[in-house]
TrEMBL record, chain A:
The keyword Cell division does not apply. PANTHER family: NUCLEAR INHIBITOR OF PROTEIN PHOSPHATASE-1 (PTHR23308). Gene3D superfamilies: 2.60.200.20. Pfam families: FHA. Keywords: Phosphoprotein. InterPro entries: Cell_Proc_Reg/RNA_Proc (IPR050923), FHA_dom (IPR000253), SMAD_FHA_dom_sf (IPR008984). Residues 76-125 form the FHA domain. The keyword Oxidoreductase does not apply. This is PSer/pThr/pTyr-binding forkhead associated (FHA) protein.
TrEMBL record, chain B:
One of its GO terms (molecular function) is lipid-linked peptidoglycan transporter activity. GO terms for biological process: cell division; regulation of cell shape. It comes from the Bacteria. It is a multi-pass membrane protein. InterPro entries: FtsW/RodA. Its main location: membrane. Residues 1-27 are annotated as: Disordered. Residues 1-17 have a biased composition (Low complexity). This is Cell division protein FtsW, lipid II flippase. Keywords: Cell cycle, Cell division, Cell shape, Membrane, Transmembrane, Transmembrane helix. PANTHER family: CELL CYCLE PROTEIN (PTHR30474), PEPTIDOGLYCAN GLYCOSYLTRANSFERASE RODA (PTHR30474:SF3).
Amino acid sequence: MQLTRAGFLVLLWLFVLAALRVVRSDLYAASGLRASGLPGFRRSEKSARGSKAPRQLVVTHGALTGTRISLDGRPILIGRADDSTLVLDDDFASTRHARLSMRGTDWYVEDLGSTNGTYLDRAKVTAPLRVPLGTPIRIGKTVIELRS
Amino acid sequence: MGSPVPSGEGSPGASAATNTSPGLKAPTRRGTELVMLSFAAGLVTLALILVELNQERSLSLRILYLGLAYLGLFACAHLAVRRWAPYADPAILPCVALLNGLGLVVIHRIDLALEGTVFPDGSTWDPVAFKQVIWTGIGLLLFAATLKFLPDHRMLARFGYTFGLVGLVALLLPGVLPGFIAPTINGAKIWLRVGPLSIQPGEFAKILLMVFFAAFLVSKRDLFTVAGRRFLGMDLPRARDLGPLFAAWGVTVAVMVLQKDLGSSLLFFGIVLVLLYIATERAAWVVLGLGMFAGGAVVAWKLFTHVQQRVANWQDPIARYDVVGGGYQISQSLFALATGGIGGAGLGAGRPEMIPEANTDFITAVIGEELGFVGFAALLLVYMVFALRGLRGAIAVRDSFGKLLGGGLAFAVCFQVFIVVGGITKLIPMTGITAPFLSYGGSSLLANYILVALLLRISAAARAPQRIAKPKPQQPAIADQHTVMVERPK
């Protein structure tokens, strides 16, 4: 009887540990963060890492601070519209404000005719501009940057 | 959601998508969910076997069938998730399955303990485990229906005000209706009697009001971040922006006064505060809200005897053991927890008949006795994983409404567990409230299954790979033209 009692408790804890394990591996998948510390996790990405290609977009200022979007080559739409990739809630952002798109291995930012403009570092974006890694892009009150 | 797209437009999105690295297909992880569900069902079956063994009842294959039936029930829910929300979080449903299953086993176990008991008024104990199984079935049906008919959680935001009104009415209805429709049971007036059914509209109101508050805060977020005057290093909000907080406070007090339901009012006010905090990231709201709640609680304590009773029972339950409406309940729960100790008495080997309201408000005390500190801690961790995944989905989802709603829903479950467990362990005054998924009660279970469906929907939106970028009709192929658009939108 004692054995079954202890056994059940052990199994209960095993369930908790299993659930936490699921959570652990899932953390990276959901956020677009790569699991750099985990050996054998997504090896295909490791190879891509050598080149300094941007892998994610990070919001560094504004209401959405901390949001990360992993870059998979598809263009990123930024604006207040519901179907934008990054939906801004910002009075200074337009419905379709800016777009980040990939050409070759570089990412370009272009302004989609926004009212208040898009700024790459300090310069106003008037034509598609190449976005270097870690350079802030300011849209209204939101600042985003690309990271590898 | 998107407007019709003129055909033949050279969409830059499509051209950009072709030269990308594939292979970043997000895993749905539905397989993991199924494995975890089987694990949960196995644990529940084992718990049932242990109960039957410890109660010295004959074991038969029937138990295995019951276990398989339980697995089948959740396999159906799993299929619904697979069909309608393939990218939903894999850890949430198994946690719910385990909690609900253990709840069923414990309710069955309490039935066994109370079998044949004759109450002072001559009635005998009516087994409720089977009813709870039916409620679970209905709950899972509602769960699947919610997933099916709500393909996008943002649809809810459109009905924000409607939901708010319905929720408010549902919350306050039992308090103002006459006694024959809304009877007072155990001192609280929170039930509505419709024919043979008793429902607690407050449980559903919780979710409706959360939807309302999330929608309201998303549309009016800027109002709440306008800085008022600074005080002690905090930006206090302006007085006129305090309206919603006062409204929530008023409703809370009304619930406390009209329905004598301390737990719900605490839960409701906590949810509003957390939503405000998530929306504005300003501690001032929390400090103000807590101050208002403390003020309201002190006034309520001065004015109402039932509040005074609860507080006195909390301060020294043993001293008031023999007083009518005194510390008997909390004392018995503390005795049960003490009997359980570290390792517990073993499933089916405790004495739940000694605990009042064992299958509703005090079910966690029964579990604490039979599984002990070790098992109870594991159970709380299961709740934690559940809330963690809910919050994770809320962080990862891209729209503010989803963030607020997901955060609020996950917090609500967490806070409810805190209120229940805090009550039975004498950390805070005992307030009659159900433990989510564990306690016997149809309304609570149904409402919580809807809540789970919403959380899964939000996490699915967060984890799903983004659809191929939609071409934008009003901006034809700007990437292909080396011109500069300077036209201003209207």
